[in-house]
Amino acid sequence: MIERPDAMQRVRLAHTEVLLAQLRSAGPLSRAELIRLTGLSRTTLFDIIGDLIARGVVVEREPALSGHRGRGRPSTTVSLNPSAGRIVGIDLGRATITVIVATLGHDILARGSRPITLTAGPARRANAAIKLIDDLVQEHDIDLRALEAIGLGLPGLVAGRSRSAGGSGSPSVAAKQVSTRIQDRYGVAVVTDNNSRLAALAEGTWGATRDVRDAIYVRWSDGVGGGLIVDGRLARGANGAAGEIGHVSVEPDGDPCPCGGRGCLELLIRPSALIEQCARRGVTVADPADLVARALVGEPIVSDVVRHAATLLGRVLSGMVVQLDPGKVAIGGTLAHAGEAVLEPVRTAIGQLAIPGHTRRLDVVTAQFGDEGGALGAVAAALRLNMSEPLPALPTA
Question: pLDDT exceeding 90 applies to what percent of the chain?
Answer without folding.
Answer: 61
